[in-house]
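step: validate -> pass
step: tokenize input -> pass
step: predict -> running
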Amino acid sequence: MSRIQSNIPALIANRVLGQNNLSLNTSLERLSTGLKINRGKDDPAGLIASENLRAEQRGLDQAIANAQRADQVVNIAEGGLQEVSGLLTELQGLLTASANESGTSVEEREANQLQIDSILQTIDRVAGQTNFQGMKLLNGNFDFTTTSGGGGVTDFKINSAKFGSNGLDVNVAVTQSAQQAGVFLSAGGSQIDLATGSSFSLEVSGSLGKRELSFASGSSLTSIAATINTFKDVTGVEATVSGTGIRLFSSEFGSGAVVKTTQGAGTLGGTGAGVYRLQDSNANAAQTSGAVNTANASVEDVGKAMKATINGIEASVTGKTARINTDFLDVELTLTTAKAQTIGAVGTGGDSGSAVFKVDGGGANFALASRVDIAGNVAIGMQDVSARKLGNSSLGFLDSLASGKANNVVNGDTTQGQKVVGEAIKQISLMRGRIGAFQRNTVGATIRSLSISSENTAAAQSIIRDADFANETAQLTRSQILVSASTNVLSLANSTPQSALQLLG
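step: predict -> pass
step: emit ->
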């Protein structure tokens, strides 16, 4: 080298030294922060991916916290329901004790009534005071709100529903009518006149049991129907006078309803006398032929189950009650007798068009997914469990057991009262079971699933963003050696031009 104006080796050595210093600084930064990506220029695509994963992980972690909070809320509601269940069991015992009229004095029944009143008040208090951070859980605040539609429903319960800002219409269509079991006992007149025998015996059988009844010639149809109705709680069979005969029909609807008559001694006289089956398509009308009127002859009829769809989904049906349970709607409703026996749409108009009602709000809503949308939300309905709400419109409600009401134990109908209490116990048990299933299957499974997703998301983010300390340590050692070497080379390159001075003598 005999040129000193441009020291090319020094320039090369300086450039290489700068690159090695940059590599050294990068390794030091990664080792000190623990991150492979500290700014966008480190890995633009990797930064985008890791930021998306970080946001997803944060959402997953919060969804887990939301699920745990939901479990805590439902735990408090379950505690209140457990107490109500215990009170209802106590109420059942008081009713049974009070029904033993010959073994209890009026004073004892009055004392029992005081306890019943106290229990009803306590149930109302539990319903009104069970809360989470001031939010009442069992007073109907977390039940779904509805707008009345076309009618045709006597009772309904919404267990879960997902809907947007426009609400959710509940449309019901009956595809097969519900029928009671029944037979028609024709006497050919307003009383029975026997063709043979001194009396007419008839064994009446239903889904609850059977009774054998005997009637003398000349007994009126009205008195016979009244006698049969006396045992309707035992047999499950009721009777009503219809023209020149008596229609015997099951108290319940559906395939579980049975009416069977077995004729004993005596045969009926009169034109067309005997026992007829009811028409398959119309349980209110008897067949016009095929009368049975011989000793020991039996006539049996089984009810026909209703078939229905709710929002296009085939419903499970018991009697006149239909239910569907889907991700977007879990509803149970009981139709009026007229609607249950009429094929076609149940709703006939109203605020929601042909819908029987419209779900437009309410429910306990929990966000159990990382993304806030209708698919990630879970809603559960918690109905009002106060005394005026437990029961149904057919049997009556629990507050009817209070002093002075129809089913009080001093002078009221304890038989009906026990039916109401039985229905209330069933409702609370079903509600507890539904809440328990929500905790175990929905919340529990969600927490487990989200925890795994959070772990996998964190692992994916770590692979993209976190520094590999083993690799970075090796890079640091390499960079330190190269920087030292580059520094020495630059020193040598800077001293080389000095040899040109020897040419000047």
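step: describe -> The radius of gyration is 41 Å.
step: cleanup -> pass
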